[in-house]
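Q: Given only this backbone (174 positions), what sequence would you predict?
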């Protein structure tokens, strides 16, 4: 509820899901990172790793050198407290039907990134303002301060869900 997702301390997503998720397994999909399946116990036959914790309203784990923090306004577990967390990373997972949506969104974001870069490049070429307007004459030539562009924060598409069993999270062979 009112979640925030941080990767390596940087806010990459936030939102207000309209549904509470409950089940033996919770999962989240992070665009470009894959799916993370969370369990309070290891699961035989699956490569869950004990790499995280649940502490009140926070899920925290590290996978492939990236540190994830999933924060919620409400406690993650009804009983609260601190718990070990087993995580199964599925890096190739892409939500069903979302490949075209992801491609379209990336195209929009790429165009936006290109526009921002072009504006920054244009701004970097602009000279100092007129001396009589913004600078005292004695500081005009001693001004060594340069404006560095601030990179735009990468926002990720995020989905969450839950399941009662691990088998319900994998496609069935038809």
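A: Predicted residues:
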């Amino acid at each position: 509820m009112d979640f925030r997702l941080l990767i390596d301390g940087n806010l990459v997503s936030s939102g207000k899901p309209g549904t509470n998720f409950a089940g033996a397994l919770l999962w989240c999909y992070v665009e470009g990172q894959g799916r993370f399946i969370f369990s309070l116990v290891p699961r035989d036959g699956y490569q869950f790793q004990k790499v995280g914790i649940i502490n009140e309203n926070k899920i925290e784990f590290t996978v492939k050198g990236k540190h994830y923090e999933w924060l919620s306004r409400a406690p993650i577990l009804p009983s609260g407290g601190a718990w070990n967390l087993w995580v199964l990373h599925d890096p190739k997972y892409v939500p069903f039907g979302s490949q075209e949506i992801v491609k379209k969104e990336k195209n929009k974001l790429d165009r936006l990134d290109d526009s921002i870069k072009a504006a920054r490049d244009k701004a970097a070429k602009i000279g100092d303002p007129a001396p009589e307007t913004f600078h005292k004459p004695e500081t005009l030539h001693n001004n060594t301060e340069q404006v560095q562009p601030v990179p735009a924060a990468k926002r990720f598409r995020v989905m969450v869900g839950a399941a009662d069993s691990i088998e319900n999270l994998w496609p069935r062979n038809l």
